[in-house]
C-alpha cells in the first residue's frame, strides 16, 4: 500500500533532518505535535535548529523536548511561557526568540503556503515586534509588511491519511497543522492510521495530499510519562 511512494519508514524520514536546518511544526501546547518524528530528531541529536511553531510546548512534551535538550538556536513563535527552559535560554542568550502575534504568525505561514510575497498587518506598529520591518500605506492606513514563513521541512500530525497524503485531523489537534503542511519545502505527515485510496470522505479532508511529500506511521506517545517527567 505505497503506490505513490509517500509512505516511508521513520529511518528514511529522519534522513531529511540535519544540523542548522529550519524546522516548522504543527501543534498547540504539544497537542498536534508529531511525537515520533520529534523523538527521532531528539535521539539523533540534531542541533542548531531554527524552530517555527505556535509555542515552545512543555519541557518534556512535544517540541519542548528539543528546546529542553538545547537543540534549538532560534524560535519563531507566538509564546514560550509554557516552557520555562525556553525562557531561561532566551534570558541567557542561548536561544534567540522572534515573537509574533498569533494571528500574524499564522498568516505568515499561510502566505508561504499559497505563494504570497507577504501580508499587510496593522498589529504591532511601534511595538517590540516592529523592528526593521517595511511599512506601506494603503488607503491612508499604515501597515507592516510581514514576510512569509517557510522551512526546509515541515512536520505535522494527523489522525488519518490515505496513500496520496490526504489528511484528516482529530478535533483540536487540527490547530495549526493544515497551515504548516502547506508551508514546508518538504512536508512529512506523521499519522495514526493509513488507509487505502477512496476510504476517506472527501468532505472531511482538510489537507490535500498535493501538499504532503511523505507519510510516517506514528508510534504514539506515552502521555503519562511525559507529564510525570
UniProtKB/TrEMBL annotation:
Q: What UniProt keywords are attached to this protein's entry?
A: Transferase
SMART domains, sorted: CoA_trans (SM00882)
Q: Does the keyword DNA repair apply?
A: no
Gene3D superfamilies, alphabetically? Glutaconate Coenzyme A-transferase
Keyword Transferase in annotation:
yes
InterPro entries given in the database record: 3-oxoacid_CoA-transf_A, CoA_trans_fam_I, NagB/RpiA_transferase-like
Q: State the protein's name.
A: CoA transferase subunit A
Amino acid at each position: 500500500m505505497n503506490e505513490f511512494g509517500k509512505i516511508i519508514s521513520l529511518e528514511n524520514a529522519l534522513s531529511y533532518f540535519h544540523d542548522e536546518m529550519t524546522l516548522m511544526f504543527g501543534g498547540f501546547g504539544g497537542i498536534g505535535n508529531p511525537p515520533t518524528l520529534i523523538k527521532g530528531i531528539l535521539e539523533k541529536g540534531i542541533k542548531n535548529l531554527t524552530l517555527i511553531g505556535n509555542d515552545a510546548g512543555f519541557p518534556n512534551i512535544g517540541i519542548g523536548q528539543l528546546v529542553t535538550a538545547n537543540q534549538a538556536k532560534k524560535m519563531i513563535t507566538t509564546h514560550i511561557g509554557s516552557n520555562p527552559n525556553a525562557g531561561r535560554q532566551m534570558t541567557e542568550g542561548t536561544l534567540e526568540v522572534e515573537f509574533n502575534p498569533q494571528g500574524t504568525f499564522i498568516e505568515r505561514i499561510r502566505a508561504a503556503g499559497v505563494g504570497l510575497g507577504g501580508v499587510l498587518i496593522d498589529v504591532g506598529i511601534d511595538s517590540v515586534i516592529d523592528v526593521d520591518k517595511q511599512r506601506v500605506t494603503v488607503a491612508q492606513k499604515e501597515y507592516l509588511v510581514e514576510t512569509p514563513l517557510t522551512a526546509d521541512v515541515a512536520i505535522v500530525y494527523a489522525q488519518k491519511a490515505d496513500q496520496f497524503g490526504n489528511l484528516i485531523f482529530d478535533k483540536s489537534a487540527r490547530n495549526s497543522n493544515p497551515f504548516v503542511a502547506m508551508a514546508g519545502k518538504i512536508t512529512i505527515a506523521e499519522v495514526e492510521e493509513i488507509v487505502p485510496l477512496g476510504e476517506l470522505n472527501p468532505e472531511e479532508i482538510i489537507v490535500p495530499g498535493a501538499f504532503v511529500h511523505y507519510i510516517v506511521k506514528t508510534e504514539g506517545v506515552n502521555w503519562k510519562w511525559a507529564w510525570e517527567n
